[in-house]
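dumping the sequnces here before i forget
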Amino acid sequence: MRGAERVKRRRFDVLPYVLVSPAVLATLAVVFYPMLTAMGMSVYDYVVWKPSASKFIWFDNYLAALKSDLFWTSLKQTLLWIGLTVPMQLLLGLATALLLNRKFAWRWLARMLVIVPWALPSVVIGLMWRWIYDANYGIMNDFLLRLRIIENGVPWLATSGTAIYSIIFVLIWQGFPFFAVMLLAGLQSIPKELYEAVEVDGAGIWGRFWHVTLPGLKSVLVTAILLRLIWVANSVDIIYVMTEGGPGSASHTLPLYAFALSRKAMRFGSASAIAVLFTLMLLTLVVLYLRRVDASGETRT
Amino acid sequence: MKKNVHPPTRSKRGHNIPVSLLTLHLPMFLIVLFALAPYLWMFLTSITPSAEIARMRVFSGPSTLDHYIKLFTRVNFLVNMGNSLVVAAGVVLVGLTLSVSAAYAFSRFRFFGRAYFMKQFLVVNMFPIVLLLIPLFIIMRQAGLIDSYYAIIISHSTFAIPFSTWMMTGYIDAIPRELDEAALIDGCTRPGTLIRVILPLCTPGIVATGIYLFITSWNEYLYATTLAGGQLKTITVAIQSLIGEYEIEWGLLTAGGFVGSLPATILFLLVQRRLVGGLTQGAVKG
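..and the predicted 3d for all of it:
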């Protein structure tokens, strides 16, 4: 057996590379090649209808972006957007998961229905909530007026002070089921004996939560937060459908800014520059986050 | 009915029922209501006549199927659903065929560059759509593929391939290695093992991954509206274009939203357990 193993190791095995190559080549073609193209375009004054007339302008697109107020407004709003949405989704999702982890008669039903927001297309979500937020006919105003929380109907999406928060609320609604089911799976993987052990030590509800539940959830939490962070940071479609970034620039985020620049103004060079900057920021954020996680004692494989 | 007349038998259970009502059933009910209410509201609006919607009498007034009839007769919604079906099926096909063999290699072989390749698939998930959207538009235009099925399918495979590779690696990891080793000893070749042992065993995983790809592609909007959207409209683009220039017909729009989201929602409810299993597999193991 040993001899056979040694022979096997010395011989270069082509098979895994053959098996991997279709997926790798396809990814190189559809993701990495366009990414390089985007980086290339970002240093040109790109003319859509006549690409040959495009001018190489070094980093002017980047400088112009960094000099514009809209860029910084968008950046601020992107941070607000991520900073509010992800933690709120997480908290609501955690509460849902803790409830779903208990045994009760209609648990299967609750578990099934709670994920509906996750399954809906962003476009439908955006339009549905536009209808709910509608200044004249929307049920949100109707509801709050009846509860006497507000005195007059509020044009939620047309007021610069409320637009971004109204959309963040929608995103929280859309994303909490994801956390709920991920964390539920995490909860169910925690051995019952651990709870029994700390109960013997006299731990209360909080003690159990801090010493067993949270540590047990850690690896799921890390993955779930990472995925959500990326998805939330990227979500353009819901804002685009709900406000197109308005009123004015009140609900602009960086990816939306890049999308609007390319779609409406056809300024592909500037849009690419902003997209590249945003990607770099996201990458930095992810790296910092993973480092923090690793530093706090988790070794991921 | 008679039983209710009797004084409630609240001997020992009487204490527990109110407590669990407050700490479990009520909050759970509120959360489910929160999750469902917008969807229900959309459905209720879609069966309310336009005149009643304008009088803010959704829910209380009479109901109608007018908006749905209009959706399928005047707006040609079935064509859009057909387009989305073709695109989503194509994405599933591309995603699964390319990812299964790669996932098998990642799961069963230890080879030089394995960690690098696996990281590549993770990093790819991080690229924002807006970064790829612009160059893909340019590339498709040069290739003359704008407004074609190919354009949308290729753009969707930017997330379909890495995602399904990641999911399938998890599913194959869960199959005991002893099974394919036994097949190898019995004289089965490596590809033979993949086809005769691994594939049948991870059929549920393949189905779940395929359905998730289908849903994601069916629901996608940004690529579909940028790379197509002229002659070829997918369901999400069609729903968005129901918005009129000056006035929004909410009845028609909500009907479109309800019909358009129904296939994905039903599929999601059907496979959710297995799907979540796949999504968390890597995470739970840590």
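The two ends of chain A are 30 Å apart (CA to CA).
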